Amino acid sequence: MKAAEAALARLDGVVLRHGVSAKELTTFGVGAATTLLAELNSIEACRSVCRSLEELAQPWKMLGGGSNVVLPDAALDYPVLRLGRGLQGAALEDGGRLLPVEGAVNLLNQSDEEPRLYVGAATSLMSLSRLLTSKGLSGFEFASGIPATVGGAVAMNAGAHGGCIADALVSVHVAEAAGESFIDASELSMGYRTCELPAGTIVVGASFRLRRRGVEDCRKQRRENLMYRKRTQPLHLPSAGSVFRNPSQASAGELLEDCGFKGRRCGGIEFSQMHANWLVRLSAEAKSAEVAQLLEAAMQEVRSRKSIDLQPEIRLW
Ligand SMILES: Cc1cc2nc3c(=O)[nH]c(=O)nc-3n(C[C@H](O)[C@H](O)[C@H](O)COP(=O)(O)OP(=O)(O)OC[C@H]3O[C@@H](n4cnc5c(N)ncnc54)[C@H](O)[C@@H]3O)c2cc1C
């Protein structure tokens, strides 16, 4: 790790930080502080970091908004990479210079019924959803209330209320040790919460095809989605969203509730009383090991009582 740190410290557009807490990096706020966090502020920085770490055979992991990741209790022995402000914003051309999203949206051709917008991967998905719906541009109404970055949302094919990122995605801009490229969305086998990005790539931006729709219709749908979330999800407590993917036979929430997991606790972590498929953090001292213990117990019980194998949606590092 020392060699990696020395190599990254020499690169332009890279800001290194030490001991950044799980509460700052993830929405769940569980786990140890990150030993080395590298914030990357340009596509060139992403490429050179990938190249340097590859030369040193140093593994690394990419973090977006940290809304689907649970950090381990033990200190990480690899660097965590995260995109910085330099990769926030939008442009009219793929890979073009990023402007504030609103500025780029205002430049879209008003007579184009299906305008294309390139968005930097560090952009907040929630802000993008709010801005596009306020302009009557459809495609991101589903994303209200998802605290992701655009890069993380592409990597997970985030979705809700019958929509997902893949619906509007045209292509993904990636950086890796060998350079940068655009991958057509059709080549990423995107499905329910899956996207097959090539190993070792960082999503630096993505291009979307939007549709024009009445501003009021867009706003109404976004508002309804948000209200549904507030009614059904424990948004007042730290979490990483849904814990398990829904299997084809039934919703994960119903299975967990049937098996008595609603309200089940381990230390400072609980299967929410409000939504059985959400784990919430009840105390600042909660451990990642407690999350793992509850996941394992739920998977075993659902397997033995329902003969269904639950697959975690959250990622335990
Ligand atoms: C309150 C709440 C509500 C939620 N609601 C939903 C919902 O309705 N639907 C839904 O699908 N999810 C939901 N989630 C989960 C989460 O928001 C999504 O999985 C989201 O896509 C994660 O994005 P992120 O930027 O936070 O990525 P992270 O959680 O940081 O990372 C997720 C994965 O993406 C990878 N990744 C992140 N950025 C990049 C990048 N630039 N390049 C390559 N790989 C990258 C990471 O390595 C990791 O494997 C919710 C979470 C919370 C806390």
Structure, described:
- There is one protein chain.
- The strands form six sheets. A five-stranded antiparallel β-sheet has the order 6-7-13-11-12.
- Helix content is 29%, strand content 24%.
- The protein is built from nine helices and 19 strands.
- The longest helix has 19 residues.
- The model has no long low-confidence stretch (mean pLDDT 97).
- The two termini are 17 Å apart.
- Helix 5 packs antiparallel against helix 7.
- It folds into three domains: 84 residues, 2-Layer Sandwich (Uridine Diphospho-n-acetylenolpyruvylglucosamine Reductase, domain 2); 130 residues, Uridine Diphospho-n-acetylenolpyruvylglucosamine Reductase, domain 3, CATH 3.30.465; 83 residues, Uridine Diphospho-n-acetylenolpyruvylglucosamine Reductase, domain 1.
- The chain is α+β, with helices and mostly antiparallel strands and 317 residues long.
- The structure holds flavin-adenine dinucleotide.
Topology:
Layout: H1 2-9, E1 14-20, H2 22-25, E2 34-40, H3 43-55, E3 61-63, E4 69-70, E5 80-83, E6 90-91, H4 101-106, E7 116-120, H5 125-134, E8 137-138, H6 150-156, E9 159-160, E10 163-164, E11 169-176, E12 179-184, E13 202-209, E14 211-212, H7 215-232, E15 239-242, H8 252-258, E16 265-266, E17 269-271, E18 278-281, H9 288-306, E19 315-316
